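Workshop exercise sheet. Pairs work together: one partner reads the sequence aloud, the other fills in the structure field after running the prediction. Swap roles for the next sheet.
Pair: D.N. / O.F.
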Amino acid sequence: QMQLVESGGGVVQAGGSLRLSCAVSGGTFSRSTFGWFRQAPGKEREFVAAFKWNDRSTHYADSVKGRFTFSRDNAKSTAFLQMNNLKPEDTAVYYCAAGTRLITSTLRIGTAYDYWGQGTQVTVSS
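Structure field:
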């Protein structure tokens, strides 16, 4: 079993930055694929970014490409999402997810992940 705990959310003005953290316990961090998803009020959960462990590839939603960056620290079993140039439309609850059996074609599908964190709120004011 793997436990994920997100932190780092908050309120920021448009154009600002935040770095979300996903602290992981249990499982094998270095051999896990991680994804970030978000859900805004009244909207469906959407894919934001993912890191696939076996080829170390990163993948981003078009809406965040060039602004958000995934990284990880294997020694601390923590994944990060650096978010720059934030926009009001980035406001959502952000979730970290993990899995070990994902392939490239399933990275953007939430149900393909086995483990989820509780989420952290990001609010971007205009």
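Discussion prompt: The mean pLDDT is 96. What would you look at next?
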